[in-house]
UniProtKB/TrEMBL annotation:
Residue ranges of domain DUF7586 in the record: 362-445
Protein name: CubicO group peptidase, beta-lactamase class C family
Positions of the Beta-lactamase-related domain: 28-342
Pfam family, one: DUF7586
Organism annotation: Streptomyces indicus
Superkingdom: Bacteria
Matches recorded under SUPFAM superfamilies: beta-lactamase/transpeptidase-like (SSF56601)
Amino acid sequence: MTSPGISADPRASWQALLPSTSRALDHRVALAQAQGRAPSVVAAVVRDGEIVWEGAATSVDGHGPDGDVQYRVGSITKTFTAVLVMRLRDEGLLGLGDPVEKHLPGTGLGEVTVGQLLAHTGGLAAETPGAWWERTPGSERPTLAHVLGEEPFLHPVGRRHHYSNPGYTVLGALVEKLRGAPWEDVLRREVLEPLGLTRTSAQPQPPAAGGWAVHPWADVMMPEQVEDLGLMAPAGQLWSTTRDLARFAVFLAQGDDRVLSAATVREMRAPAAPAEDGDWEGGYGLGVQLFRRGGRTLAGHSGSLPGFLACMVFSVDEGLAAIALANCTSGPQIGGLAAELVGIVADAEPRFPEPWRPMDEVDAQVLELAGPWYWGTAGFGLRVLADGIELAPLQGKGRSARFRAEDDGTWTGLGGYYAGETLRAVRRPDGTVSHLDLGSFVFTREPYDVSAPVPGGVHPEGWRGLKQLGE
């Protein structure tokens, strides 16, 4: 079934899914609920900023959840906390390279940085010492010392990705220290209200699903207890709905200057932690999980707490997002479900590319650079695009990158090996182009052009055939 969408958009009717696509989504959610033995599963799909499908499957006849019913979303909370930290960074109140101790003295975390906590590379333990924090009152951990324990480190700082719930508790405390207000209040004022997330809260607000434990060997279940996590709230406290998480996914894909710019959310989505050994299908940015599923790259976050499972994923390239929520401790593979919902729509109704249009105008000196160039004997092609230039190998994959024009006439690499590197066209006294300089690499119009300053020089006898080599 369709919904009014995230915002008023005259294209909303155009965006409606085909009946066959909607049926495939309905079937996949029904399968997840039945095979996962979940009391209920609710889901939504977003395309180009609008909710285009909502669905649910439930064990209660005649009464199913919709996109307004709250479920506990567990560690998706971490992404909200990360947004607050990035706001502090953008305001200049902290740097990602700052040691946490600079802002929260006495934690005992030494040189662990803010950025390392965001990316789970600080070397901290995954859980708190003592009883399992998700099933015990937050009052049992009244201070950061209780959360971190006497030995907070399990790994060398900065060497590996090791998911840490205590790390995000520290980040929440950092937000409270620099804002001078409780984490929940700061989140509501700076993120929830600006984005219109009226159904996201630290405590459940009706209508809200109850959390259940389903017996692994019998078709029976019992209610799970709901705990206030106290200091651990920034790691997993929130309740939300598919509609609110749809809005949040759109924000993470596009940015919103009232909260974070497009450039900052793009930074959050960039890999910031090494992949685990043998796991090259996923990664982690700054408060954002990264997935490779079915040949596509997805970003978002999963979450779980006793009685609940949640996942929010989105594909920036395809303009799609999916949210899936369930009210059971285990059973449905909720992360796989959300990824498959994206795949169903992407495969059945692939996105139309933007129509090609010529540039309004072009600088003749830039157009002069278009065409083939050679780094040694390796051929590259330079294309002049509406938003910069692109340099790519003529054969194979190799090192390719797009470059952004700068005011001084140079270009800055935007990705891959040349990210952040400077490309400049070096001209002769008469104004003609001698060569391209890319981070000290010299690209010439001909392989080893004798008229260009090729590092190491060019053999004076030039190119020769096999018989000429012995002469």
